[in-house]
Amino acid sequence: MKVVTGVVGNDIHVVANRLIDISLQQRGYEVFNLGVNTYLEEFIDAVIETDADILLISSLNGEAEGWCRDLHFLKQKYQLKDIIFVIGGNLSVGESTTDEIVPKYKEYGFDLVFHQVDLIEGLDTLDDYVKGLKI
Amino acid sequence: MSLLQRDRQIIVSNEYVDHFDFAEVEEFVKNASKDLFISHKFKQNQDKTLVQPRGGFPTYEKMFALYEHFKKADVDVLPCTIDSHTRLNDYASAAKMLRLSEETETDMLNGYPLITQGYRTTRKMMTHFNTPISLRHGTPDARLLVDMAIASGIFEIEGGPITYLLPYSKNFPLDKAFLYWKHVERVCAKYSPLNEPINRESFGPLTATLVPPVITIVIQICEMLLSLEEGVKSFSVSFSQTGSLNQDVVTAAVLRKSAKKYAKKIGCEDATINLVYHQWMGAFPRDKEKSDCLINTSTLIAGMVKANKIITKTRAEAFGIPTKEDNAQAVSNVKYTLNMLKGLPNIVDEEEEENLTNMVDEVFEAIFNDKADTLWRKIFNSIKNGTIDVPFSPHIINNNEVITVRDPQSNIRIYKKGAMPISDKSFKYEQSKIKLGEDKNSIVNQIIKDIGVML
């Protein structure tokens, strides 16, 4: 399966981005890593260009919320169907609980939302989700 | 008028620069006190490790106060760290933030805005302390900064086209950086015969995240060669604490020997080459006492590798920009430790040295064999095709295929070599040291553990 990944916004947390890249490859995904400082439109372009199955956005500095509000609009504009939208990292600037954040991002159009979840645990969940869809 | 001089005229004709008087600056450099030149201080203290902290504040007054604290701690070299707006050539924002800092007495910049302050003002401070000053910045285009620094009495310029770009930027064009730095080298070379030479220093820590010594050494030597071929006569290669004492000792030995060898190869053996050691540049423990232990250990290693200069960290590293008191305390402690390190044993690990030297030579063979006609183009191509690959660089040109982990002795080893031209023999040696668990997550878990090795 093809995954497009990267860090959204003016966020230069490269270490986590590389670890996600390595982990996904280790799990057998074909990875297109756009790196740090990536805008939402660039992610969507890459998804279309590579015909990806999964878009995995990460955000460490918490500014994802500002960037991801347009996801619904872009999904409709480009008629993106059957693509799994995933976001993870530190998803709010201030203190927020997972119960507040997860519904908010699901509303934006994400299928899986990981707020301050361990990298390996998050990717295990993604693996299970993908398997579930296949069955 | 030479092409270089015409370029300089254009560069200083900037709305944020007061009239730049090249003739006056030349006279100033000619007659400047030798004590302002680190190249001179290196010559006079060949068996000593000079101590240099980090630091920079926006206003003249705060900068002056910082230097006073450092001088009380018996500092050898003062830092002049530039703010991030100036680093990105955004002089308008730097000017605005300096004004706000002065009005509100809160620091609105994370360093000294040298262009905004100007050389006439800055020179008063630099000559007052009569101590060498090192320019620390992180600027891909430092063409204006270098002239402003030298005019101010700052006679050491840190950085380079690779080490100030690959760790810091996602898409500043690397070829432009090479050309802008060529200009910087030429300005440094032009001033060098007038008095003591201007010293150039490369930034060895790179991303400070599991960078294998072979990459550090190759990049240090590349930047040194690009500098020497433009006529620079005093150059410092550097690296940061790897996390393994033995690997630090081996890295220092191979870096020294290889730098000399390759300088000779391009006919520049007359230049002085110095070795600079950075205290731990990775994540620090959120515990000031433990940080003290870490800093002390790296001071010991600087002594063991006989570094010509050590660049210090502070016990407040994990908590943001250190105060001038914390910073001065660090200088004082490092000097105290260095002073007791006399007659240290000379450790040589021949097997490790041989393997590292081989890898450095293997990479350089590929660089020199690149079909391009100039050295900077050869190096540019080598970065583009992954011959040189910096772990955890955010830059789009970086190949990002090399993966490194620590072996049980904490040495950084190459687990995946990507497109690096390392021979089977050298690679086998690296592989033979790595011990990993069996499950699919073991490599990622190992990397996470290895990055946080000092936490």
Please give a structural write-up.
The complex is a heterodimer of chains A (135) and B (455). Chain A has six helices and five strands. Chain A has 135 residues and is an alpha/beta fold. Chain A has a single domain (2-134), classed as Cobalamin-binding domain (Rossmann fold, 3-Layer(aba) Sandwich). Chain A has a five-stranded parallel β-sheet with strand order 2-1-3-4-5, sandwiched between helices. The two termini of chain A are 15 Å apart. In chain B, a hairpin with a 5-residue loop joins strand 9 and strand 10 (412-416). Chain B starts with a helix and ends with a helix. With 455 residues, chain B is of the alpha/beta class. Chain B is globular, with a radius of gyration of 21 Å. Chain B contains 18 helices and ten strands. In chain B, strands 1-8-7-6-5-4-3-2 form an eight-stranded parallel β-sheet, with helices on both faces. Chain B has a two-stranded antiparallel sheet with strand order 9-10. Chain B has two domains: 3-340, Alpha-Beta Barrel (TIM Barrel); 350-451, no CATH class. Chain A binds chain B through residues 12, 14-15, 18-19, 21-23, 26-27, 33, 35-37, 119-120, and chain B through 170, 207, 209, 391-394, 396, 400, 403, 440-441, 443-445, 447-448, 451.
Keywords:
heterodimer, A: alpha/beta, Rossmann fold, five-stranded parallel sheet, 47% helix, B: 455 residues, alpha/beta, TIM Barrel, 18 helices, 49% helix, 9% strand, globular
Number of helices of chain A: 6
Report the strand count of chain B: 10
> Uncertain segments of chain A of ≥5 residues (pLDDT<50)?
none
Q: Number of DSSP helices of chain B? A: 18
What does the radius of gyration of chain B come to? Answer: 21 Å
CATH top level label of chain A: Alpha Beta
Summarize the structure.
The complex is a heterodimer of chains A (about 140) and B (about 450). By secondary structure, chain A is an alpha/beta fold.
